[in-house]
Amino acid sequence: MIELARAEPAEPGNRRGSLVDEAYAALKAAIRSTEFPPGYQGSEQEIAVRLGMSRTPVHEAIIRLQVEGLVRVLSKRGVLICPLALDDVREIYEVIIAVEAMAAELLAGLSTEQRSSAADELEAATAAMEQGLAQDDLAAWAEADDAFHRLLVERCGNGRLLRIAQTVTDQAHRARMLTLRLRSRPTRSARAHRALIEAIRSGEPGEAHRRARAHRVSARDELLPLIEKVGLRHI
Amino acid sequence: MIELARAEPAEPGNRRGSLVDEAYAALKAAIRSTEFPPGYQGSEQEIAVRLGMSRTPVHEAIIRLQVEGLVRVLSKRGVLICPLALDDVREIYEVIIAVEAMAAELLAGLSTEQRSSAADELEAATAAMEQGLAQDDLAAWAEADDAFHRLLVERCGNGRLLRIAQTVTDQAHRARMLTLRLRSRPTRSARAHRALIEAIRSGEPGEAHRRARAHRVSARDELLPLIEKVGLRHI
DNA sequence: CCATTCGTTCTTCCATGGAAGATTCCATGC
DNA sequence: GCATGGAATCTTCCATGGAAGAACGAATGG
Fold first, then answer.
1. CATH number for the domain including A52?
2. What number of C-beta contacts closer than 8 Å exist between A and B?
3. Which residues in chain B have Cβ-Cβ distances shorter than 8 Å to A85?
4. Which residues of chain A lie closer than 8 angstroms to B164, CB-CB?
5. Residue B72: enclosing H or E segment and its boundaries?
6. What residue numbers bound the domain in which B41 lies?
7. Closest alpha carbon within chain B to A99
8. Which residue has the higher pLDDT, A181 or B137?
9. Do A63 and B60 lie within an 8 Å CB cutoff?
10. How far is CA B110 from the centre of its chain?
11. What pLDDT score does A11 carry?
């Protein structure tokens, strides 16, 4: 692992590709993939040489990541990749429950066209989940499940809610990957998704709220004991 | 307005007072007080000289403020103090509704001691609201109301929820100040607060959720038309 | 053998200078 | 009078150097 992958400026008609953005994306990817494992402590200097840039853009990218809660910078000692304790995962799930329930409610309150269009997209994602499951491709299932939940918040019409959901989802990514192989085959998810889609399609905000909430609550109640059982100090 | 107020390092046993933190606090205060009005566009250089420091810590503070959504930095053109449109206030309220309802629910699910202690604090804040109202001191009322809602999220045991609530509350501060004098005397708030406190004290998460939510929903439904009526392009 | 002190080294923090992009405004041409 | 071109000026963006602080280890004293 000599160097970190830099986002390629593939497009010749280069858009706003600043070094800070590059460093931010590369670091986030490295954290997600556990190339930088939780608890790892490195220096900005080291990251800078790996990315082939100077310390400044790395420093600024790390500020962003710190605000978003992915890393902590320990004064004069380096940057720490935040490990997740069980309580962190619990907190994250509580946020997700609140945010997605609200998003589903808002989505179900939009116009018929918007609801219908969103419901179609959600249905496609759910179908992709089932296909992944049928082929025993858990990675594909997880990706489609992610897409479903991302769509739910993207289409609700509240950008702040979307941003919050993305931030906590990023934090939870490692825990999600860990439990993916530990839990039993997630066959009930598709059913819950379809029930939610129906409430959205027919425009019932209250029912959409309840179903989105119940779906995430049961996910939490299944995953938290699982994480506790494996007894990891942190993820 | 020659210079911005810098947070004084009054305490001689100086804690971790970095220039970045100073700049961050000073800028946030200046934005809240509309010393930097919404839509204002300034340069980091200008802010740096006003604060009596170099450009670097100002630049880094601005990155933090940008992530939190208070400012936007326009490449090579300066930093913009984000104005709030009606839709922004709507978004913010939707977030607050979801977050506070969850916080109230969590709080009502804590141990009897924690609930009781929190309920006492919430009751004190509510009493302060009534006193402010009795003396026609709207500023005092608003401060106590802020304290109530801050306490609610502080005591729920979820740090991420707290951080989210603080971020959106910061964004909404100007709108709140604007509508404070426009709306009718907020006499019903104290009653709603007491109902919520009772649900918390007696440990009813579902009821606490509903009451916290209803309280913020009615606030939104009162304030949004008010803002629309004054017809401000942005706040 | 253990505790303490001091020096070395590594880190972030902050200042500053140069580069490149965006805007403004004035001169020029028609 | 009006559009156009271009220079001057402003801005952020990035690199780099020095300063201060934290951690580590070796030398020293008991």
1. 1.10.10.10
2. 65
3. none
4. 95, 164
5. strand B71-74
6. 19-81
7. B98
8. B137
9. yes
10. 25
11. 46
